[in-house]
Design a protein that fits this description.
The chain is built from 9 helices and 10 strands. With about 290 residues, the protein is of the alpha+beta class. The chain folds into 2 domains: about 130 residues, MutM-like, N-terminal (N-terminal domain of MutM-like DNA repair proteins); about 150 residues, Helicase, Ruva Protein, domain 3. The strands form 2 sheets. An 8-stranded antiparallel β-sheet has the order 5-7-6-1-2-3-4-8. Strands 9-10 form a two-stranded antiparallel ribbon. A hairpin with a 3-residue loop joins strand 3 and strand 4. Helix 4 packs across helix 7 and helix 6 packs across helix 7. The longest helix has 18 residues. The radius of gyration is 20 Å and the shape is elongated. About 40% of the residues are buried. The structure holds a DNA duplex (14 and 14 nucleotides).
Amino acid sequence: MPELPEVETIRRHLAPRVEGRVLRELEVMDARWCSPLAAHEVASAVEGRRVDALTRRGKYLIWELHDDVHLMMHLRMTGTLLLDPAEPPRHRRVRAAFDDGQQLYFDDPRRFGTGELALGSDALDEFFAGRLGVEPFSPEFTSAHLYALTRARRAPIKAFLLDQRRIAGVGNIYADEALFRAGIHPLRPAGRLTRSQVAALRDGVLASLEAGLDAKGASIDDFRDPDGVQGSFQDRFLIHLREGEQCLVCGRPVRKLRVAGRGTYVCERCQPRPRGTRAAAALRGGAQVAQAT
DNA sequence: CGCCCTGTTGGGGA
DNA sequence: ATCCCCAACAGGGC
């Protein structure tokens, strides 16, 4: 569930409750979470330090601790943070205790979530330099910048959007939504988009991410609640994430493809199929690029 | 009931 | 540069 908007929403809820507190204890129950570092290495690096700030880069949540110690958390697909839950969550991987008595659990059934450590801001910058590109909610994310990034890229535009090294934080469902809003087919080669299409895509990326921000939910405790954040932000989506549903704009049934190894939903009237490209040939042939499910 | 497929992610290897 | 597979688990379809 956690993509950039959800991570940002979690951060906004959590920051006022943890900033300035001292992280007394970090109990790592799953050694895989911080591998290859040992659990006790991570714990001893962060314990006793004050939380200077809780920030975010892409889909990473960053605990900026005293003396330039940084703990980068990634929730991957099923990770959740729960503050002072009524009872410890079933799939808890990490528990943090603060000096004011608050307990924060990292719950993650699938155990994909990760925790990494950066000692010093140089190490932090280096960590992200190789992984993350431009931050969508930043002044640098202009259509001119995006246009330059896409040039000479032959990969499908959806694969481009999902590549965190180009734009940080666009996940699968947000990529679909952005492309739908921009009227661009996910299989269009990135480098062949026109300037105006790129401009529409830039706006679509921002609009789709904003649609997921601050969706309902008074506390971070209800991120799993079907009536909470999840239902709420999906109501703000225009593209249906289910095959056969009617497009909200034109009524045509939504089609499901597989692009960049991910389920991909598209309205082929609002998002015209590419013509005269390898992608188009693959679509016609129904090869592995596009398969109905 | 069991088997198979899927999935809001990212990294490593081919 | 790109694609495929994998990590580990839950839930749904058959």
